[in-house]
Specification:
mainly alpha, single chain
């Protein structure tokens, strides 16, 4: 069962999505600005991948961005960091 999940995640996201989310939570962009900027960065990455002919890479990058967006919508990630 775990192998099927891992295979599905690899096809959808190009990585283990839980490990990816953990890495996002540790990155400086998330810590300083929140998930919205990380998501915007992933969308920019997908545009670059499309420009260089990597349709599959762009699809997986967009799936990672959507996963983070849904986590923000569900309150599992901070969208933006409050500024004083």
């Amino acid at each position: 069962m775990q192998t099927t999940k891992n295979s599905r995640e690899l096809q959808m996201y190009g990585c283990d999505i839980n490990e990816f989310v953990a890495s996002v939570k540790e990155c400086i962009t998330y810590r300083l600005t929140g998930a919205n900027m990380v998501i915007a960065g992933l969308m920019s990455d997908a545009q670059e991948e499309l420009m260089h002919g990597s349709d599959e890479g762009a699809r997986q990058t967009l799936n990672r961005a959507k996963h983070l967006l849904f986590m923000v919508m569900d309150g599992e990630l901070i969208g933006t960091v409050a500024r004083d």
